[in-house]
Amino acid sequence: MAGPRYIADPEDQVQSVPLEGLIVLYHRPSGMTHLLAPPGPQILAALAGEVGDAEAVLARISEHFDLAADDPAAAIAARLGELEAAGLVRRV
Amino acid sequence: MRHALALKIGPVSFRIGSAWREPLAQLERLYAGYPAADEVADFTVRLEPATPWRRFARPSVAIRGDYTLPDAAPLPLPLGLLAAEMGMNLQMALGQKRYLLLHAGIVARDGEALILTGASGAGKSTLAALLGEQGWRFMGDEFGLLDPETGFLHPFPRAISLKNAALALFDGADPGRLGPVLRGTPKGMIRHLRPPADAIARMAEPARPALILFPRYGRDFPAEDRPVGAAEVFVRLTQASTNYVSLGARGFDALTALVAEVPARAIDYGSSAEAIAMVERLWAARA
Amino acid sequence: MSGPESEIGEQSGDRPSRRAVLALGAAAASTVVTIRPALAQTAGSVLNCEIPVPSTQAGGNYIAADGSLVPAGTAGAYPPAPRPITGEEAKVLLNGGPTPAGLNAEASQAYANYIRRLQAGMSGFTCYASLQMPR
User: Fold this and answer.
1) Domain assignment of residue B173, yes or no
2) Given a contact as 3+ CB pairs under 8 Å, which chains touch A?
3) Does one domain contain both B111 and B73?
4) CA B239, CA B232: separation in Å to the nearest integer?
5) Fewer beta carbons within 10 Å, N or C terminal of chain C?
6) Are C21 and A86 a contacting pair at CB < 8 A?
7) At A66, which CATH number?
8) Which residue of A has its CA nearest to C23?
9) By CB neighbour count within 10 A (0-12 exposed, 13-18 middle, 19+ buried), where does B1 fall?
């Protein structure tokens, strides 16, 4: 079953600075600043300028990382929900 | 307006207009020795009658200017000096675009700045003022001005607002530096103290931030210090800045650079002597 | 909130794997914090404030017990407060404390409900918002 598809702004639209294992991110289009813990930044990288649903996001992240989660689908859905609420990803 | 006074404080110049002479006369005495103001003011403050009939009968001062808060309560005329100070704070809080504002006391030694930041009432203003009397160069007790282009802090040495118990700590200061006793203010009894002469003489001299401290005073607090992580420092400083959002990317760059490069600690203390000792120890160990 | 940890797995004779492990977090976890500086808090702490009850735009309306505006003279409703309520008084009143000096106790409960219903753009909203922010 295909879930909703998301996209994030291209990487030149955000500025990120690592601080203490977290990423502080300035989102130019909204002028807002967010503090992100992993896997937030990795999900944004997976969706930067590229549409994807939850499955696609998991697949793209798995190319670089071994994923640890009891229920990866639920976890990814929760993370995408948070990023959407913050205005960092949007549905297409 | 009937009466006007121009003031230059650090890089910022104000023009304060007033319907009454007395608050400006008090302001002028408090800021004696400050350099001449620029011809064109950065910000204007106006002390106006709250309603036309409040100019004479139970006179009541509304704080107006380039920037206003619509719900601000007017103050009685005897607190006109406080109204002028609040008016200047408000112009900075709402209108300052060149420098990122930190709600902090700043003191410096040998070109390096100590940032004292934290919640209102925790003790940072009093501590900045005390350090200014102990050989540190006082740069401000309310606003730190961070230049996004250089990463340096610029002095903004306004008159120091001392409330209630804190006043007693400055008994040794030259009484000529003190403003009038202001009773019945929203924060209790207040008196202003003019910053030390060297703070005024060097108000055009920026300093490089070298240490951030989050001071907390409590009569029963045991003296204690602990590190504060960079992410927490960042979030706390955004809460303590009135113009972080309006500065956009410049603000983000300035604040992330500050937090990434400058160490931070939280200090708790039960007396000024403890506070000063902790500051000196942590400053010596700051690198 | 933990960061990625490196794990080096080895099998006999093979090159060790250098892929990092990325924890996806529990479903209920919170991994995004949005910075929302409180203008009302910092500017509000700079200035005392007051709340007119009701606002001057309300044109002579009375205040019902639940804080809503009703036509003047409505049974059970209270006339406008004789003076604006200061930020400090509102804070005390909203926390169940004593009635502000000079105001009727029952009317003050209606005024408190009025204040709780303030929206952006109404007189007194900035003052009310600044009371909500932790100091």
Assistant:
1) no
2) B, C
3) no
4) 11
5) C
6) no
7) 3.90.930.60
8) A68
9) middle
Average pLDDT, chain B: 93
Q: Are B243 and B93 in contact (CB under 8 A)?
A: yes
* pLDDT at res. B145: 98
Long-range contacts for B177-184 (Cβ within 8 Å, ≥24 apart)? B179/B26, B179/B29, B179/B30, B179/B81, B180/B26, B180/B81, B182/B78, B182/B79, B182/B81, B182/B82, B184/B76, B184/B79
CA-to-CA separations, B152 to B145, B229, B262, in angstroms, rounded:
8, 22, 12
C62 vs B119, higher pLDDT: C62
Which of A65, A68, A83 has the CB atom closest to C32's CB atom?
A83
List the domain range (segments joined by +) for residue B269: 100-158+195-284
* CA-based nearest residue to A67, from B267, B197, C7: C7
Residue B214 lies in a domain: yes
Task: Tell me the two tokens of residue A1.
Answer: 């079953």
Query: Between chains, do B242 and C43 touch, taking CB under 8 Å as contact?
Result: yes
Task: Pick the closest to residue A35 from B118, B259, B147 (CA basis).
Answer: B259
Which of C31, C42, C83 should we substitute to test contact with B (largest number of B Cβ atoms within 10 Å)? Answer: C42
A24 → closest Cβ in B234, B248, B249: B234
Residues B106 and B76 in one domain: no
Residues B108 and B250 in one domain: yes
Q: Is the pTM of this model over 0.90?
A: no
Nearest to A35 among B235, B249, B260 (CB): B235
C1 Cβ under 8 Å from any chain A Cβ: yes
Query: Of B71, B94, B242, which is closest to C50 when you measure between CB atoms?
Result: B71
Enumerate the residues of chain B whose CB falls inside 8 A of the CB of residue C51.
71
Phi, psi of B233 (to 5 degrees): -60, -45
Task: Report how many Cβ contacts below 8 Å link chain A to chain B.
Answer: 32
Answer for the pair C28, A78: CB distance below 8 angstroms, yes or no. Answer: yes
What is the Cα–Cα distance from B36 to B13, expressed in whole angstroms? 9
Amino acid present at A69: A
Same domain, B237 and B220: yes
Instruction: Provide the pLDDT for residue C47.
Output: 59
Could you tell me if C84 and B73 are in contact, meaning their C-beta atoms sit under 8 angstroms apart?
yes
Subunits next to C (3 or more Cβ pairs <8 Å) are A, B
| Alpha carbon distances (Å) from B250 to B90, B145, B232, B242 | 22, 14, 20, 14
Partner residues linked to A36 by β-bridges:
A23, C32
pLDDT of residue C134 exceeding 50: no
Contact: A20, B230; criterion CB under 8 Å? yes
The pLDDT of residue B253 is above 90: yes
